[in-house]
Write a structure and sequence with these properties.
The complex is a heterodimer of chains A (113) and B (110).
Chain A (H helix, E strand, L loop, with lengths): L4 E3 L2 E4 L5 E6 L6 E7 L6 E7 L2 E5 L6 E5 L5 E5 L8 E8 L8 E2 L3 E5 L1
Parallel strand pairs in A: 2-11
Antiparallel strand pairs in A: 1-3, 3-8, 4-5, 4-9, 5-6, 7-8, 9-10, 9-11
Chain B lengths: L3 E4 L2 E5 L5 E6 L7 E6 L6 E6 L5 E4 L2 E6 L4 E6 L8 E8 L4 E3 L3 E6 L1
Parallel strand pairs in B: 2-11
Antiparallel strand pairs in B: 1-3, 3-8, 4-5, 4-9, 6-7, 7-8, 9-10, 9-11
Classes of the chains: A mainly beta (113), B mainly beta (110).
């Protein structure tokens, strides 16, 4: 096990709703990155948080937002959910802002109906 | 915006065989090339990684070959075992961005 925990493990929402996903990073890691993994696809980088600030962002609209807390845990918020947002959302933690060695959680499976 | 292309999509080998998975990238700013292994219901786990200043790296049964001029890299699994059956992802990253390939589902038959 990596020490990265995500909650909840599964979630069902309807189109237009808002969702918050949570991640606790591995002890000693101060950087959290979020990824979206559609079925049968590789993870897509959403954004990274380092020292409580966004430190890089992939090609995702502003309705995907995040937070990092002083204890380095993190939240991913998605507003105005769309059917295409259905995916596995992965959180990964690492030390410093580099992505060299990052440890992934098991993910949150989000279904949008 | 696919910046890392991975092939094949799926691969079946017999136990003891040497599966090879290939990846190609576009952005020359990438400076770190990891491979991840993912089992069903789990997050990806780092398997092995390479930087562009070396052409090959070996860790146990896993070897990465890297061709900087061609912007290609590949994973070789020596003496493959049924327990290696999983989905493998290549990736390319720089300081604060990581791009994954679409994955290769490997099946190693006993």
């Amino acid at each position: 096990e990596t020490g990265v925990t995500q909650s909840p493990t599964h979630l069902i929402k309807t189109r237009g709703q808002q969702v918050t996903l949570r991640c606790s990073s591995q002890s000693g890691h101060n950087t959290v990155s979020w990824y979206q993994q559609a079925l049968g696809q590789g993870p897509q980088f959403i954004f990274q948080y380092y020292r409580e600030e966004e430190n890089g962002r992939g090609n995702f609209p502003p309705r995907f937002s995040g937070l990092q807390f002083p204890n380095y845990s993190s939240e991913l918020n998605v507003n105005a959910l769309e059917l295409d947002d259905s995916a596995l959302y992965l959180c990964a933690s690492s030390f410093a802002s580099r992505l060299d060695i990052q440890y992934f959680g098991a993910g949150t499976r989000l279904s949008v109906l | 915006q696919q910046q890392v292309k991975q092939s094949p999509q799926s691969l079946i080998v017999q136990k003891g065989g040497i599966p090879i998975i290939n990846c190609a990238y576009e952005n020359t700013a990438f400076d770190y090339f990891p491979w991840y292994q993912q089992f069903p219901g789990k997050g990806p786990a780092l398997l092995i990684a390479i930087r562009p200043d070396v052409s090959e790296k070996k860790e146990g049964r896993f070897t990465i070959s890297f061709n900087k001029s061609a912007k290609q890299f590949s994973l070789h699994i020596m003496d493959s075992q049924p327990g290696d059956s999983a989905t493998y992802f290549c990736a390319a990253s720089n300081n604060n961005d990581m791009r994954f390939g679409a994955g290769t589902r490997l099946t190693v038959k006993p």
